[in-house]
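Worked example 3 (structure in, sequence out).
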């Protein structure tokens, strides 16, 4: 297939390379010239302006956007003027599902098809095979399924439902992730402060070798210990947040069911983990260092202490 791709950041560039390796043609763009050149070196065609997609992509166009959620509307505004009825736009970023629903309705009125995909796996998954949760028109999912298959680990993609469902499932995924990371951080601070002289790197290794809590997260903590040392001296104990944990907490309180009734679902673990991140500003801790180290391992987030 031949698709357009907007956004060559730490996720987008890896995905473009993976698409190319699987035999697809990609026309890509990004404001960063170095990123465009790296995409070209991998075999992509690049353009400077979104308007170039009009001539570079023939027939029904499929354009994947991988940009921060706060600029999606600007990109859609520029794209909608050059696309034709039936063309597809896929938002692969971490957008709020409510915004995705709105955007889908607005683009539908113009004859365009808006789809959404929650992508899990971080930069490594984007480059080597991710997990994807896809929302939007079922017939377009079926038509472009090979793209999703080629971008994911085996069995690592699924159709979630109408537009917004993909981002909704990914939002809750990230909320769960907050709680899991928080539990790991708290547990390892307990281990660190205990009466026993424990090798935390070895504890993380054994936890991740056949135990009930074996997971990518515990494995990433072992990697962090190998790279930074168990004291995590260079890692900040103040933890940033990307927004999706906050969105999950808000959705739990305001959840509306299929019957239209308000559910107000308790989510104390996710809410507490989100509040911990807010409270960590000016109040660093070892738990915060563990959580920050994990964010760096799977998401490439900058978490070093400021000089």
């Amino acid at each position: 297939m031949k698709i357009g791709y907007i956004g060559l950041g730490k996720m987008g560039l890896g995905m473009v390379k993976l698409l190319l390796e699987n035999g697809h043609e990609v026309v890509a763009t990004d404001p960063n010239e170095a990123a465009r050149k790296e995409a070209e070196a991998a075999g992509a065609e690049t353009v400077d302006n979104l308007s170039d997609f009009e001539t570079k992509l023939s027939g029904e166009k499929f354009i994947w956007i991988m940009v921060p959620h706060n600029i999606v509307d600007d990109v859609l505004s520029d794209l909608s003027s050059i696309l034709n009825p039936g063309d597809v736009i896929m938002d692969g970023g971490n957008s709020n599902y409510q915004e995705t629903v709105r955007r889908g309705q607005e683009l539908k009125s113009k004859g365009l098809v808006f789809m959404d995909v929650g992508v899990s796996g971080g930069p490594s998954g984007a480059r080597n095979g991710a997990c994807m949760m896809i929302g939007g028109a079922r017939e377009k999912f079926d038509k472009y399924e090979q793209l999703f298959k080629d971008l994911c680990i085996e069995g690592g993609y699924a159709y979630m439902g109408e537009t917004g469902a993909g981002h909704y499932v990914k939002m809750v995924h990230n909320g769960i992730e907050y709680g899991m990371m928080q539990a790991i951080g708290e547990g390892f601070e307990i281990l660190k402060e205990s009466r026993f002289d424990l090798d935390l790197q070895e504890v993380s290794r054994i936890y991740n070798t056949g135990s009930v809590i074996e997971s990518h997260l515990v494995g990433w903590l072992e990697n962090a210990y190998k790279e930074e040392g168990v004291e995590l001296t260079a890692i900040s104990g103040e933890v940033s947040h990307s927004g999706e944990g906050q969105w999950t907490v808000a959705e739990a309180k305001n959840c509306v069911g299929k019957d239209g009734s308000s559910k107000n679902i308790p989510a104390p673990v996710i809410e507490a983990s989100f509040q911990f991140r807010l409270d960590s500003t000016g109040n660093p801790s070892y738990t915060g260092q563990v959580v920050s180290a994990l964010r760096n391992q799977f998401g490439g987030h900058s978490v070093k202490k400021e000089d």
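Notes: The chain is about 50% helix and 15% strand. The longest strand covers residues 152-161.
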